[in-house]
Amino acid sequence: MGQQALLKPGSALRRLMEGGDARSATSVILYGPPGTGKTTLAHVIARAPGRKFIELSAITAGVKDVRLVMEQALTDRDLNGLRTVLFLDEIHRFSKAQQDALLPGVENGWVTLVAATTENPSFSVIAPLLSRSLLLTLAPLQPEDIARLVDRALSDERGYSGEMSMGDEARTTLVALSGNDARRALTALEAAAQGAMASGRTEITAEDVEQALQKALVRYDKNGDQHYDVVSAFIKSMRGSDPDAALHYLARMIEAGEDPRFIARRVVIAASEDVGMADPSALTTAMSAAQAVQLIGMPEARIMLAQAVVHIATAPKSNRSYMGLEKAMADVRAGRMSPVPPHLRDAHYPGAKGLGHGRGYVYPHDLPSSVARQQYLPDALAEAVYYEPGQTGAERDIAARLARIRQLQRPAAPGAVD
After folding, report:
1. Residues 250 and 265 both lie in one domain
2. How many distinct structural domains can be found in the chain?
């Protein structure tokens, strides 16, 4: 259901499912959200003629189990002419050593590997295995796919054979609460049907569905692909000045049980990286929220996190201080450095003054402007400009003030007094 693009006639997956030359069967990695049909497709592939199906779970199987499968697959191929289809669910949970154990069988054609994962294989599957497999991305199911699936389950003889019915309101509720997960939708349908039957009814109501699904699924694996997607959207929403979206992703992380300290760290980083000197108080708010997470804890700390998120999302934005540091670091890494000017060197230890350290240094506070005409950068970078304030928020005033400061500092030779 919902994977028409992958299953069209002539497609690689269709050819694999229909059989053909078993020796040329390609290993595949099925990547997609939960409940989109990965396991079902693996079983259909296994039904092709001349194939033996073995299923392993990455949660319970170890390297020894994988090697036993490979040895048996080699025996079945040589003695019985059978091609083994190895279905490995949640391959992202396999360690590198466990995935390495799969390589000989895949590379030499002892097995056709059909692996399923809800996480991006580029990050969770080793490169040699990925390069030897066909990566197929399953599309998320749409509400209409779930609705058709529910209707089929009600009418099909493998389901309720028309003995149970469901009105439009109940169907809409079930589809909305399924999270576009077919497995979750069917599980909820079964639970709702049992609730209706327990009351002596043959029609499933919206109340039955709500009772079966008391809380919508938050699809968010703290160690998985969804984690990174939600966090990325959270950060970009704050940066993009959308407090509504930022609060939405904050709520998803909180409801999924994300560590509030992790959230607080991302908020603190955003306060400097994206707001910076356009509103220096954003960092104070973010740090206060981070301290509140430590001192108060959840669930109350969510209130402080929300305040900090809204502050950052609605604050004027500038990354000029951050970009200034990046430019300065690029110069340092490229070797564009020279000795610290003598008048800035430490003159407090014995013999330092004899070396000329500190000679000619002007103490800024001795001047009415508190700005001395003297060089602070090394000679090789005397005219370098790293921090260039923008015209947003507080940086508008900083830009005007800094321009005057640089006029006072830089025209004269090192050590000259204003």
Report:
1. yes
2. 4
Burial status of residue 190 (CB atoms within 10 A of its CB: 0-12, 13-18, 19 or more): middle
Same domain assignment for residues 147 and 133: no
pLDDT in tens, 104-116: 888 888 888 888 8
pLDDT tens for each residue of 185-215: 998 899 899 989 998 999 999 888 888 876 4
Digit-coded pLDDT (tens) for 314-343:
999 999 998 999 989 888 888 888 888 888
Length of the chain (residues): 418
Q: What is the extent of the structural domain holding 104?
A: 4-137
End position of a domain, from candidates 137, 164, 190: 137
Report how far apart, in Å, the C-alpha atoms of 414 and of each of 52, 305, 357, 376, 394 are.
82, 48, 14, 8, 31
Q: What is the pTM of this model?
A: 0.54
Instruction: Give the model's pLDDT for residue 222.
Output: 56
For the sheet with 28-31, list strands across it.
Answer: 51-57, 83-89, 111-117, 28-31, 134-137
Which whole-number Å values give the CA distances from 130 to 32, 102, 135, 267, in the listed order?
16, 11, 8, 35
Beta strands in 330-396 (DSSP E): none
Confidence of residue 141 (pLDDT cuts 50, 70, 90): confident
Q: Are residues 22 and 95 in the same domain?
A: yes
To the nearest 10°, the Cα dihedral for 144, 148, 149, 150? 100
Same domain for 31 and 80, yes or no, is yes
CA–CA dist 200, 180 (Å, integer):
29
CA angle centred on 145, ends 27 and 217, rounded to 5°:
85
Query: Are 308 and 234 in the same domain?
Result: yes
Looking at the fold, whether 111 and 199 belong to one and the same domain comes out as: no
Does position 86 have pLDDT exceeding 50, yes or no?
yes
Yes or no: say if 174 and 192 are a contact pair by the CB < 8 Å rule. Answer: yes
Structure tokens of 297? 């804890």
Say what percent of the chain tops pLDDT 90. 25
Residues 126 and 147 in one domain: no
Distance CA 358, CA 350 (A): 13
